[in-house]
Amino acid sequence: MNIELYLYAKYDKAALDILKLLDENNIQFSVYTFGENDSLDMISNRVGEKIRRLPVVMVEGKRVGRYYDLIEYLVNEGIINYQGKSYG
Hints:
Blueprint: E1 3-8, H1 13-24, E2 30-34, H2 40-47, E3 56-59, E4 62-65, H3 67-76
Parallel strand pairs: 1-2
Antiparallel strand pairs: 1-3, 3-4
């Protein structure tokens, strides 16, 4: 599974939550960082579709969304089990 995380290089709790979720579940992923001055058009061009905000997670080239969208995706794919765990 090819998971890509696009985020700003500065601290962002949402991005940190995504990183922790993937790391704690031993899920391999790639991270692409952008500076605050990078335009959303440039970022969208890099991601391959229109982006309005970061962080955003792509799986197999398709946008999953943000933190809770990623949890839902991973649960539905049987990759993680949310029972007994607190996410968020």
